[in-house]
Each structure stands twice: as structure tokens, then as C-alpha cells.
Design goal:
By secondary structure, this protein is of the alpha+beta class. The chain is about 15% helix and about 40% strand. The chain has two domains: about 110 residues, 3-Layer(aba) Sandwich (Rossmann fold); about 130 residues, Probable inorganic polyphosphate/atp-NAD kinase, domain 2 (Tumour Suppressor Smad4, Sandwich), CATH 2.60.200.30.
Length: about 250
């Protein structure tokens, strides 16, 4: 089994990575069977994006803080752990954002696409799903569209629902909604296309982010799941993303 080890910038992650390389050997990512990522969830997201073209499975080991997407770090028995690991297949979201100057950018994300106000002025956003206007105007700090894999992250902190993996829905969640104050968000099918139009983008500027990729001064954002890209996350048996999401729903 050929491994490609990669670590975040944390000193302990780099030290542990070198120890694993000394023990199991190092292969180029293009030639490996499995990518082993050491760090936190940010490192895992980065490595998953690096496999867009190859589809190589990624086995993460936590050397960060939360590590929701990661497995526990252990140096022993890595070959056996990877061979017995559970597979979770996920598809990223694709964001197409157009700014006030008419420039268009495309980016992918694994957790969520978020729109956030850039100044003290509240954002005003019109929301459509599959071409039908569902909310004429949301006055808010922002709004996000989260995948099931990302539903326990920013989405959950914004009081959005945790989505069981395999449920084939996306969570649309407002961030500090002022009007309509009682709107708590929606679940849409994962094959739907969501469109966010910024009302008065010059006076009320809004940025759009797809995970770590940020576009400023947007006037419209279109988001959909990109089924042409399949990503594989490997987890220790009994500790897959589906089980972790279930546990999150029952934590006090």
C-alpha cells in the first residue's frame, strides 16, 4: 500500500508526519494509493480539494483542534487501519459568483457557500430555488448553503440543522436574520440550484465564500452540487461521518 503523507504547518503535525514517513515510506501523490493528511479539518479540506482530479481516498489524522473530519492520531497499525476503514463519498458544491463589475468566478467547496455583509449595512438578498423566487428579500448579516458533510460546522453554529449523510438535501441557513425575523432557513434537494441576488450591492456590499475562496462585492451567486466530482473520506470503523453527525445531534 503506497502512502502520500502531508501535514499542516503545525510543528507537531510536521514532526509526526516525518515519523510516519520514516516508518512507512513516502510516495508522490500521483503514484500513491492513499493520501494521509495530518492536521485539523482545514488541512483535510485542502487535501480533499487536491484530489478533485484523481479521486484518491484521504485518511486524516487529527493534529489540530476540532478534527471532525479526522481520525485519532496513532502511528502503529496504519496499514491495517486504512484497509479496514469505512468509506464516505461526498460531492462538493460549485459556486458561480458575479461581482458588481460583471466579473464571474467559479469555486468549489466541501462545507458551505456563505454570503456575508461587508460593511455595517445589513445585506438584502433575494433567494430563488430552481428559478422560482422563494424569498423576495432577506435582510440579514448573511446566508449560507451547507452540505451534509459541512452541516455540523458554520451551519450548525448559525442554528442550522445537522443533516445525516445520504439524506440528499442541503441546508439553507440565515445568519442573524432581521427580516423576516421568523425565517429559520430551509432544506432543499441536493440537485436543486440556489440563486442569491444582492439587492443594492453598491450601497450594501456582500462577499461570497466557498470554504476558503472569497469573492468581494458580489451581485449574484449561483450554487449547486457538482456530481461530476466524487471525494472519498476514510474513517476508522464506527467513527465515520454519518456516526459523528448522529452523535452531534445528541450532545448537550
Amino acid at each position: 500500500m503506497k502512502f502520500h503523507f502531508t501535514a499542516s504547518e503545525r510543528p507537531d503535525a510536521k514532526t509526526r508526519c516525518q515519523s510516519l514517513i520514516n516508518r512507512y515510506g513516502q510516495h508522490d501523490e500521483a503514484e500513491c494509493d492513499i493520501v494521509i493528511a495530518l492536521g485539523g479539518d482545514g488541512k483535510m479540506l485542502h487535501e480533499l480539494k487536491s484530489t478533485f482530479a484523481t479521486g484518491k481516498p484521504v485518511f486524516g489524522m487529527n493534529c489540530g483542534t476540532v478534527g471532525f473530519l479526522m481520525n485519532d492520531f496513532r502511528e502503529d497499525g496504519l496499514v491495517e487501519r486504512v484497509a479496514e476503514a469505512e468509506q464516505t463519498i461526498i460531492h462538493p458544491l460549485e459556486m458561480q459568483a458575479t461581482d458588481v463589475d460583471g466579473n464571474t468566478a467559479t469555486a468549489h467547496c466541501i462545507n458551505e457557500i456563505s454570503l456575508l455583509r461587508e460593511t455595517q449595512q445589513a445585506a438584502r438578498i433575494r433567494i430563488s430555488v430552481d428559478g422560482v423566487v422563494r424569498l423576495e428579500e432577506l435582510v440579514c448579516d448573511g446566508v449560507l448553503l451547507a452540505t451534509a458533510a459541512g452541516s455540523t460546522a458554520y451551519n450548525f453554529s448559525a442554528h442550522g440543522p445537522i443533516i445525516p449523510l445520504g439524506s440528499e438535501v442541503l441546508a439553507m441557513t440565515p445568519i442573524s436574520a432581521f427580516r423576516p425575523r421568523r425565517w429559520r432557513g430551509a432544506l432543499i434537494r441536493n440537485y436543486s440550484t440556489a440563486t442569491f441576488e444582492v439587492v443594492d450591492p453598491q450601497f450594501r456590499p456582500v462577499s461570497a465564500s466557498a470554504d476558503s475562496v472569497r469573492i468581494t462585492s458580489v451581485k449574484s451567486v449561483t450554487a449547486r452540487q457538482d456530481d461530476s466530482i466524487s471525494l472519498t473520506i476514510l474513517s476508522d470503523p464506527g467513527h465515520g461521518l454519518e456516526e459523528k453527525a448522529m452523535q452531534e445531534q445528541f450532545q448537550l
